[in-house]
Design goal:
Length: 151
């Protein structure tokens, strides 16, 4: 499998993060990480499994799900619940940032945005309700700029 320089840089960063956290980035986890890194948008677990099986013929659904679970817990990828897919987080690090995703229902493009104002407003509303947010992923569906301009 050829790896582009962006994927190599992301993998090196992920290895550093794992080293600092004492987490193990196994060979399979690295392979799944690199497969995700080469995708521009969201990809389903079974699509990743098919790609992984070209490298590791013995890979099973549990293999991909365990790897995705690990990568998600480390903050390297985000699961998009509404479309049952995964997307690489290109600005992961030591922070545990809130995730806000804009999902185009026409072309499937997914953009990750960060709005501190939105996060503060959501947390304030949660606090007022006596609720403590432990993890946040907000998904908004609609049409991206390119799809709006072609309709």
């Amino acid at each position: 499998m050829t790896i582009d320089s962006t994927a190599e840089k992301l993998l090196a960063q992920a290895q550093q993060v794992c080293s600092k956290k004492g987490a193990r980035l196994t060979k399979v986890r690295e392979q799944v990480f690199l497969l995700l890194a080469k995708h521009q948008g969201a990809v389903g677990a079974y699509d990743l499994l098919e790609e992984l099986q070209t490298i590791d013929a013995g890979a099973k659904p549990a293999t991909i799900y365990r790897a995705l679970d690990f990568l998600s817990k480390q903050g390297f990828v985000h699961k998009i619940e509404s479309i049952n897919a995964f997307i690489m987080c290109h600005h992961f690090g030591e922070c545990n940032h809130p995730v806000q995703l804009l999902i185009c229902d026409t072309c499937g493009q997914v953009d990750e945005i960060q709005s501190n104002n939105f996060d503060l407003a959501l947390r304030a509303m949660a606090d007022a309700s006596g609720f403590t947010i432990s993890h946040q992923i907000v998904e908004a569906h609609g049409s991206c700029r390119a799809c709006v301009s072609t309709s």
